[in-house]
Design goal:
7-stranded mixed beta sheet; 14 helices; Metallo-beta-lactamase, Chain A; alpha+beta
């Protein structure tokens, strides 16, 4: 596998219960792929009611289903679903692609024994040894896509690649998490989280830290590189939003897109504003979503859910979803103009799905709701549609008519 960089890119190298038995059932022919229209009505009836981290809100979507079977999607391309125990997502998709010198694995699940057993079972059924996996590309360093990378580096000869910006967050997110937690706690307080809920919201995701074994990339990516892999040639497309350094892989000749968590078939990727976020994550996400929506892709291979067809329709649905969220916030601030609203207060007044009120959300779900709300309201502020002030140690937002 060869990474051909764009001429402007600088090279920077750093080194640093479903089990395997389930994976043994492998369909050896590619099945028919769902069109977006096949199930869109059922999805939209739920999604239109403004679900946020979607993974949490739509828990029944994946978690209550059996782990999907391994599938041959194209000659030389397999979908290898891995379990995400205790996660509403239920599974993460990894993709195995035949290369000239072995195999490329895209994403790898998190670092748990059942995930490793399932991956081993998939490979064994395909008569692939761990040592045959020569390349690992990670779309982003969230635990469910990156967590197993360190262990795989120990048992395979795979080189590891992901985006340069993701490399910057490894230490702060996984090695020095206490500093990040302290900053995040203060940031949640600054955005209106009540004192009584700070610890619950702040520590809602700490259990995921034990499911990551840190691995540093052999090669960092910038976007624009071409990854040659057997008969495939994947262009690396930088798609910030869900994470700062998220990437998708696109093969123009075969019209296939590995979309990671940038475009998912039935749930909306979480886009939040965090204490160490840079720029405007939602603006970045919408821009990169429009970019991806223009690609000629007949097969989309997402990080969660079923591979699907109908990329332009799906990106259009996601854009419409975020427009509804922006309009919901504007409506709230216009309706009550005699007060200032913190990010927490705005989130608590929004709709988070037809099955849950704010009081029903867990601490982790509330944290996601607050960060997603802030991503939306900050975009409105950047556009000049809402005003912002800091007073008495809290940042708040309000609607001001022209001239106010």
């Amino acid at each position: 596998m060869v990474h051909r960089r764009p001429e402007h890119a600088e090279n920077m190298t750093q080194r640093g219960e479903h089990t395997a038995e389930h994976g043994a059932q492998a369909p050896e022919q590619a099945g028919n792929l769902p069109q977006r229209g096949d199930h869109a009505a059922g999805y939209e009836a739920q999604e239109a009611e403004h679900g946020t981290n979607t993974a949490q809100r739509e828990a029944h979507t994946y978690a209550d289903r059996p782990l999907p079977e391994r599938a041959l999607l194209l000659p030389g391309v397999w979908r290898l679903p891995l379990p995400l125990r205790d996660s509403p997502l239920g599974h993460v998709n990894t993709y195995l692609i035949r290369a000239d010198d072995g195999y490329l694995l895209v994403d790898c699940g998190w670092d748990t024994a059942d995930t490793l057993r399932t991956l081993e079972g998939h490979l064994r059924a395909l008569d692939v040894r761990f040592g045959d996996v020569r390349h690992l590309v990670v779309t982003h360093i969230h635990p469910d896509h990156y967590g197993l990378a360190g262990r795989l580096r120990e048992i395979t000869s795979a080189d590891l690649s992901f985006h340069r910006l993701e490399r910057l967050y490894i230490e702060s997110r996984y090695a020095d998490a206490n500093d990040l937690l302290a900053e995040m706690r203060e940031w949640l307080r600054l955005n209106g989280t009540p004192q009584s809920e700070l610890d619950q919201l702040n520590r809602g995701s700490t259990s995921m830290m034990s499911r990551v074994q840190i691995a540093y990339p052999d090669q960092t990516l910038d976007g624009g590189e071409e990854i040659a892999c057997g008969k495939f040639s994947f262009k690396v497309i930088w798609t910030p939003g869900h994470s700062a350094g998220h990437i998708c892989l696109y093969d123009r000749a075969h019209k296939i897109l590995l979309s990671g968590d940038h475009v998912l078939p039935w749930i909306t990727p979480s886009v939040g504003l965090h204490v160490r976020s840079t720029g405007n994550p939602l603006a970045d996400y919408l821009d990169s979503l429009r970019l991806i929506g223009k690609l000629e892709a007949e097969l989309v291979m997402p990080g969660h859910g079923e591979p699907f067809q109908g990329l332009p329709e799906r990106t259009g649905e996601l854009l419409a979803h975020h427009q509804r969220r922006l309009e919901e916030i504007l409506s709230l601030l216009r309706r009550v103009t005699d007060r200032r609203w913190s990010g927490y207060e705005i989130a608590s007044q929004m709709r988070w799905g037809s099955r849950k009120t704010w009081d029903d959300l867990t601490g982790f779900e509330r944290r996601l709701a607050v960060t997603e709300t802030l991503a939306h309201v900050e975009l409105l502020h950047a556009r000049g549609e809402v005003q912002k002030q800091a007073a008495d140690g809290v940042v708040s937002y309000f609607f001001a008519a022209d001239g106010d």
